[in-house]
Design a protein that fits this description.
Blueprint: H1 10-16, E1 23-29, E2 35-41, H2 42-45, E3 51-54, E4 78-83, E5 89-90, E6 98-106, H3 117-130, E7 133-147, H4 175-179, H5 182-195, E8 199-204, E9 210-215, H6 220-239, E10 243-246, E11 262-268, H7 285-305, E12 327-329, E13 336-338, E14 348-350, H8 359-376, H9 399-408, H10 410-416, H11 418-436, H12 441-447
Parallel strand pairs: 1-6, 12-13
Antiparallel strand pairs: 1-2, 3-4, 4-6, 5-6, 7-9, 7-10, 7-11, 8-9, 11-14, 13-14
Length: 451
């Protein structure tokens, strides 16, 4: 083993024990959360401490088109990629012995590139730390296993289970439903173990072939790294068994959507105590301030939590997704839920984020709202004690409206970074314009001969 391998996590070292490392994938997450970078022989990686990629990777839309740089000329200067060895993990689905390593993105002067999503999340975490706080998150990941779909003109359908029947909807928490595609789940567990990831639990959700994976609570950047890796390993596990895994917010008409619920709390760095609970175990004003911050500022970050036109199909009543920013204790109809817990684990569950969001940006956005709440010290609206679907909708209904709210929020832009917000908005408006140029089957069916 080479010297640098002594700096990687134990799980990665165990993976390489007695074997020769063949390849290293040097990766970063782009605006969409797609892994970009370079793969190289381990023998070459050994002698390099940095790598180069053009900043244009953060100007690319989900369709592969390029957005004009709103911050200046499109000259594509090189950024410096510096390996973060703490992220080194196996790529166990490859034919050879490969490690993936997430890289920090710097400019040529050694400063963090402000438009890199991982740096955006780090920026928000540092704002907490400057106040003596440490944010803690626990994400939930929902996704669908679906039949292979090689023709985008055809609807997505559930996968075939081991029984020879397609996965059925309305089987939430059913163990036999999970067993229908148990081999995929087994590979997910195996890949996660080889990569050193802890799964808190896997369960069947309400949609046909819909699965939820819960992750243990921890540091926001580390958890975002895990979700970034998890999306890839889940896709690879599905492909092994002749199906696709999709993280689209709403892949199947008439089925629930897929969320990335974010449980969040804040620890006092000096005492190690949860600032949401007082000495007697009761709720603190800081807890209520965070709820108020989420209620006040979440509309301005919906464009990060729901980043595509498809994302807004999830926000419909009675489909297990919120339509407003009401809050309540143990109330799953609200956008902000307070789960049952002891004082040390008191937290807020943000149910707005879709699983299609970039995990770094989704966590950064939610934490930014709570941070502003702690600074502004407002009080939330009265708790919703009934069905929140009976209350008015107060979240954007499409990507264009969401981007307008982001562009108008000076406070959110201050927290996330003005340059990042400008680039993000430019990329998303380009995607939205591309979508509006596509004529849908609904339009052809109902408008062609009737209007």
């Amino acid at each position: 083993m080479t010297d640098w391998t002594d700096r990687i996590p134990q799980a990665a070292r165990d993976y390489l024990e007695g074997r020769r490392l063949d390849e290293v994938e040097c990766i970063v997450a782009d605006i969409a959360g797609v892994a970009r970078g370079k793969a190289m022989p381990a023998s070459k990686f050994r002698f390099q401490d940095r790598f180069f990629l053009p900043n244009s990777i953060f100007l690319q839309t989900i369709t592969g088109e390029w957005t004009d740089n709103p911050m200046g000329a499109f000259t594509e200067p090189d950024m410096i990629l510096v390996p973060d060895f703490s992220t080194a993990t196996a790529a166990p689905w490859t034919a050879d012995w490969t490690l993936q390593i997430i890289h920090d993105v710097e400019d040529q002067q050694g400063n963090p590139v402000p438009i890199a999503p991982r740096n955006v999340l780090k920026r928000v975490v540092q704002l907490y730390e400057a106040e003596g706080w440490k944010p803690v998150v626990a994400p939930e990941m929902e996704f669908f296993l679906v039949a292979r779909n090689t023709d985008p003109n055809q609807p997505i359908i559930p996968p075939m289970g081991r029984s020879g029947r397609r996965a059925a909807a309305k089987q939430a928490y059913s163990m036999s439903a999970v067993d229908e595609y148990g081999k995929v789940i087994d590979d997910i567990y195996d890949f996660a173990e080889l990569q050193g990831f802890e799964i808190d639990g896997i369960l069947q959700e309400g949609g046909a072939g819909q699965v939820e994976i819960n992750l243990a609570h921890g540091d926001p950047v580390e958890l975002a790294d895990q979700i970034f890796f998890f999306k890839r390993l889940i896709r690879e596990a599905a492909l092994r068994h002749d199906c696709f895994a999709t993280f689209m917010a709403k892949p199947i008409e008439g089925e629930p959507g897929s969320a990335m619920h974010i449980h969040q709390s804040v620890i006092d760095i000096e005492t190690g105590e949860n600032i949401f609970s007082d000495e007697k175990g009761g709720e603190t004003e800081a807890f209520l301030h965070c709820i108020a911050g989420l209620q006040t500022h979440l509309p301005a970050v919906i464009a990060l939590l729901a980043p595509y036109v498809n994302s807004y199909r999830r926000y419909v009543p009675d489909f297990a997704a919120p339509i407003n920013l009401e809050w309540g204790r143990d109330n799953r109809t609200t956008g902000l839920r307070v789960p049952i817990s002891g004082p040390a684990a008191r937290r807020i569950e943000n149910r707005l984020a879709g699983m299609d969001c970039n995990p770094y940006l989704g966590l950064a956005a939610s934490l930014a709202c709570a941070y502003l709440g702690l600074k502004e010290k407002r009080m939330p609206k009265a708790e919703c004690l009934g069905d929140a679907y009976m209350s008015a909708e107060d979240v954007p209904v499409n990507l264009g409206d969401a981007l307008d709210l982001l562009s108008e929020s000076a406070k959110i832009r201050d927290v996330l970074g003005h340059e990042f917000c400008a680039v993000y908005e430019a990329v998303k408006r380009n995607e939205y314009k591309e979508f509006l140029q596509v004529i849908s089957p609904w339009e052809r069916e109902h408008l062609l001969l009737n209007v």
